[in-house]
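Database export, one record per block. Field names are fixed; values are copied verbatim from the stored entry.
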Amino acid sequence: LLQYTNTTGTVMQGGGTYPNFFDAHPPFQIDGNFAGTTGMAEMLLQSHLGELHLLPALPTAWQQGDVKGLIARGAFEVSMSWSNHQLTTATIKSKQGGNCVIRSSIPLQLEGQNRSSVADPELAGNYLLSFPTTKGMIYKVGGKK
C-alpha cells in the first residue's frame, strides 16, 4: 500500500498508492482507499478496551511526524507529535466528558495537573495515565520530566 506508483497518465502498474493516497489497484477500489488510511490511523491511535493507546504500531520509517484530529472511542479528539519514534506531545479534547485512560510506551505527565502515568503491571514497557475530563476541555500530555 505505501509503495508509490506511476502518477503519469492513466496506467495503473501493479498496485500501490498514488501521492493522494488513492490506491492504484485496477479496477479502482474504494474499499482499498478507506482501508489504507484506516490502517494508518490504527498504527497511530487505538481506542479499544476503554483506553487511548498512543503510537501502538509506529512504523520504523516514520521516525518523526504529527497527526491531528483523530477521533477515538469515548468521544476524544487526539492530536500528537513524535520524534525519534517516541511521543513528544499529545492533546486530547474531550467531546463529552468522562474518564480518559492513556496507554503509551513512555511515562507521561498531564500538564497543569499533578498526574503522571504509572507502569502497567500486566504489560511490561507500557504506562497508563488516567484522569477525569470535562466536556469541551483540552488536555495536554508530554513525556514525564
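Remark 1: The mean pLDDT is 88.
Remark 2: The longest strand covers residues 86-94.
End of record.
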